[in-house]
Amino acid sequence: MTIALQPSAAGNRALLFVFLAATIEGFDLQAAGVAAPKIAPVFHLTPQQMGLFFSSATLGLMFGALAGGYTADRWGRRTGLVIALLAFGVASLATVFATSVDMLIGLRFLTGVGLGGALPNLVSIASEAVAPERKGRAVALMYAGMPLGAAVASLVALLDFHGNDWRSIFLVGGLLPLLLVPPIIAGLPALKIAPHGHERAVSWTEIFRREAIGTTALLWTAFFLGLMVVYLLMNWLPQLLVVHGFSRGEASLAQILYSLGGVAGSLIGGHLLDSRWRLPAIGASFVFVAAALAMLGLLPPVLALTLFVVALVGGGVLCVQSILYGVAPQCYPTRIRGTGVGLVVAVGRLGSMAGPLLAGMLVAYGSTPSDVMLIMVPVILVCGIGTLALIARGFRPALV
C-alpha cells in the first residue's frame, strides 16, 4: 500500500507541486528548440549534429522513464521526483558551461534522463492524490503544465527575451527545478510503497502475463501512436508552416497557440475521462483531432484561419494525450504503478522519436505540408481505436 493522499489540503498541495514540476519540465523540453538558432553558429553545428542535439534528449527521456518508474516503486514517489528534478536541473545548468559539441550533446542526453525520470512520478502522485472519481482530472491538471511550460519557452523565443545569450535559457531551466526541490521535500509526503497484508513484490515482467498482455499491448500501442503525432507536430509544425508560405514569426506564434490550445485540451481530456459518458465522449475527441488535422492539411495559407485551426489541433492532440496519461496509472496496482507507467512512457518515447523521423522522411521524398498532416489522420484514428478498446475493458488492471 502507499501513504494515500485524499482530496484535502494535502492532496491539493500535491497537485500544485506536480503541476509546477510539469510546467518546468515543459519549459526544459522546449529549451533546446528555443536555444538552437543561437547555439548553431557558436558551435558551428552541422545539420547532423543539430539532429543529434535534439534527439539526444529524447533518447535520454526513454532511459529516464524506466529508471524513474523503478525509483517510484522502490523508494517512493517523492524521492523519485526529487532525484529527477535534481538530475535535469544540474544537467541543464552544466549545459551553460559546455565547450564542445560532444559535451553539449552529452549534457542534453543527461537532461533528458532527468526529464524522463520525473514523468512516471508525476503521473503516480497526481493519480494517488485524489479520490478515484477525480483521477482523470488530477492527471490532466498535471499534464496541462507541460504545454504551458512549452508555451512560455516559445514566447521567450518569439519576443527574443534571451537576446544573443543562448546560455540564459538553460540557466533558467536549471535553476527552476532546483528551487522547487526544497518545497517538495518539506510539503509532500514520501508516498513510499510499503508491504501490507497479501501484497508482495512484483517483477516488472509480470505485466506480460497472459491476463495482462491485452491491456499492456493496447496501452503501449496507443501511447506510441499518440506521442508520434504529438512530437511530429511539436518539432515540425513551424517548419511546415514556413514551407506553406508563412514567416518564421507567424510560425512561432502558431507554435505558442498550439501549446496554449494544448493546456485547455489537457484539462478537457481529464473531465472526459472522469465523466459518465466517457466512452462516446473520448471517441468523439479522437474524431475531432482527425478532422482538425485534415482541416489544417487542406487550408489555404490564410494566417488568421490557420492560427485558429492550429489552436484546435493543439487542443485536440493534447486532450487525447492527457486521456492516455490518465488511463495509464489506472491500469496498474499501486505496488507497481511507477514501474508500469515508466515502461509505458518509455515505449511512448519511441513514438516521439519516430514522429519527427517520419516527417523528415516524408519531406525528403517530396511530401508537402498538407500531405504530412493528412498522413497523421489515420494514425490518430488507430490510436483512438486502441484507447477506446482499453477503456471499454473497464481499466482492468494489468495486475491484480
Automatic annotation (TrEMBL):
Look up the coiled coil feature and give its residue ranges. none
Pfam families xref list: MFS_1
Q: What is its main location?
A: membrane
Which ranges carry the Major facilitator superfamily (MFS) profile domain? Answer: 14-395
Q: Which UniProt keywords apply?
A: Membrane, Transmembrane, Transmembrane helix
Question: Sorted alphabetically, which InterPro entries does this protein's record hold?
Answer: MFS, MFS_dom, MFS_trans_sf, Sugar_transporter_CS
**Membrane as a keyword?**
yes
Cross-referenced Gene3D superfamilies: MFS general substrate transporter like domains
Record's keyword annotation contains Oxidoreductase: no
Location of the protein in the cell? Membrane
Residue spans crossing the bilayer: 51-72, 79-99, 105-126, 138-157, 169-191, 212-233, 253-272, 279-299, 305-328, 340-366, 372-392
Cite the PANTHER family for this sequence. CARBOXYLIC ACID TRANSPORTER PROTEIN HOMOLOG
Q: What is this protein called?
A: AAHS family 3-hydroxyphenylpropionic acid transporter
Organism of origin is: Xanthobacter agilis
